[in-house]
Amino acid sequence: MWTKKNVALGGKATQSERLRNEWAAFSSAGNAIDGNRDSYFYHGSCIHTSGGDNPWWRVDLLQVYTITSVTITNRGDCCGERISGARILIGKHLKDNGINNPHGRATQSDLLKGEWAAFSHASNAIDGNRDSFFYHGSCTHTSGGDNPWWRVDLLQVYTITSVTITNRGDCCGERISGAQILIGKHLKNNGINNPQSVLIFTVQSLIQK
């Protein structure tokens, strides 16, 4: 039986750097795992880097765990868009601040054909951005045809407890109806020999205004 526990609370957090002003003391990496979900920065329980290229935050859990979910409380007083495009990497490698740890590798049957092909890459589905408007550049899209597919290689063996899908929100949400979620290690026939976990009837579109 699985028991969920917040293992980050006992970890050791570091980050690329803190703010460089009078609020530096409020921006420490450890604030993210203090158990306080107050999302207002000036209340003293958020982290903040000084910006720059490729800022990062990292927690060492000090033991080996099976990670089933990661929960992030975004900043609530302003600036929530700053987290867009962030990646969650899980592993034991510290080289280059952990960027070599796995975050999944995505492929799909094909891309859109035409001027919007560059917006349709498989990796868009795992970039951490849930913007559901295709023309904003964070959705996947095949060219249609028979039996299109999308696949992610997690690069390690995990126990999968849930799969979350953000459907297209600007139009065409019905296209996902009838899709299957298959989980397994077999690549033959594009993975269709893996066991079926779920048959999708509908996924409510995330409408953004």
UniProtKB/TrEMBL annotation:
The keyword Metal-binding applies. It is found in: Secreted. One of its GO terms (biological process) is regulation of complement activation, lectin pathway. InterPro entries: BG_Antigen-Binding_Lectin, FTP1, Galactose-bd-like_sf. It comes from the Eukaryota. Residues 4-103, 104-207 form the Fucolectin tachylectin-4 pentraxin-1 domain. GO terms for molecular function: fucose binding; metal ion binding. The keyword DNA repair does not apply. One of its GO terms (cellular component) is extracellular region. Its main location: secreted. Keywords: Calcium, Disulfide bond, Lectin, Metal-binding, Secreted. Belongs to the fucolectin family. Homotrimer. Acts as a defensive agent. Recognizes blood group fucosylated oligosaccharides including A, B, H and Lewis B-type antigens. Does not recognize Lewis A antigen and has low affinity for monovalent haptens. This is Fucolectin tachylectin-4 pentraxin-1 domain-containing protein. It comes from Anguilla anguilla (European freshwater eel).
